[in-house]
Specification:
Oligomer: single chain
Number of domains: 1
Strand order of the largest sheet: 3-4-5-6
Keywords: Membrane, Transmembrane, Transmembrane helix
Radius of gyration: 34 Å
Largest sheet: 4 strands, antiparallel
């Protein structure tokens, strides 16, 4: 039997002697491979956990933004007289308008309307949705501000 090891031709009993000196190397290589794969799996698991948390945060933000947008859309349906009767310097709180679907548990919607400081013919409305994230020490919120005219647009 002929074997070439590192560019040197080895024949006969010399091959058996070389292979005999390899005892334990296969086990060492397997253990090293297991170690490398384990380290890689720990890193992948960490990324998986972070992406799951980010996905949950995104879902909560989406719910909050949808609630704020829904409140603003429902305010669009109000008659222009609703906006025309606001006091010139008063800040008014507006309750949740969708009587068919209440605010989901864990979320709070605060809507405040006040005359626009830059233009007396507009009402500035700010909707703030607040919630407590499960693993967050502080309350989180989404705030959307828009303007409605005090006069009819037709």
């Amino acid at each position: 039997m002929t074997l070439i090891i590192r560019g040197t031709k080895v024949e006969g009993d010399a091959v058996a002697k070389i292979l005999a000196r390899q005892n334990g190397f296969l086990m060492l290589e397997v253990m090293l491979a297991v170690l490398i794969v384990s380290v890689a799996l720990v890193a992948v698991l960490g990324m998986f956990i972070n992406s799951t948390k980010a996905n949950a945060d995104a879902a909560e933000n989406t719910v909050a933004a949808t609630l704020a947008q829904k409140q603003l859309e429902m305010l669009k349906t109000k008659d222009h007289n609703y906006w025309a009767n606001f006091a010139p310097n008063a800040q008014t709180s507006i309750s949740w308008l969708d009587i068919d679907k209440p605010v989901p548990q864990g979320y709070a919607v605060n809507t405040v309307a006040m005359p626009c400081p830059e233009n007396a013919s507009l009402v500035q409305v700010t909707v703030t949705v607040t919630w407590n994230a499960p693993n967050s020490p502080a309350a989180r919120n989404v705030k959307i501000t828009t303007f409605y005219p005090k006069i009819p647009l037709y």
